[in-house]
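Title: Comparing notes on inverse folding

I've been comparing how different people in this forum approach sequence design from structure. To keep things fair, I'm posting one structure and asking everyone to reply with a full sequence. Here's the target:
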């Protein structure tokens, strides 16, 4: 089904991956700058890493909604791509299919 459209599919998948990486990276950078999940403390034995559970919880609570939105957006884009390719390749008509589903068959 994808013959002749493979570069378009690959391009959309790469673009969606870049969007997800940029948003995730930017959000992680900002959160780590504002709420560091760990800090280095100088002790007698040397440098010790102390984690901040509260800041890690804040990270999870703020990252989850963004990831959910990006994943939903990617799923919608891939669904629209599927229907676009089906319309282009098979001449599939969504409006005609919806009318067939909506109208009761008369005997």
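Reply #1:
Here's my take.
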């Amino acid at each position: 089904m994808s013959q002749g459209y493979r570069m378009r599919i690959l391009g959309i998948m790469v673009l969606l991956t870049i969007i997800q990486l940029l948003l995730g990276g930017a959000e992680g950078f900002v959160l780590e700058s504002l709420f560091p999940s760990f800090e280095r403390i100088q002790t007698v034995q040397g440098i010790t890493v102390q984690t901040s559970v509260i800041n890690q919880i804040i990270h999870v609570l703020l990252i989850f909604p963004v990831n959910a939105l990006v994943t939903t957006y990617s799923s919608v884009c891939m669904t629209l791509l599927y229907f676009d390719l089906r319309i282009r390749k098979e001449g599939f008509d969504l409006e005609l299919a919806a009318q067939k589903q909506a109208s009761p068959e008369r005997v």
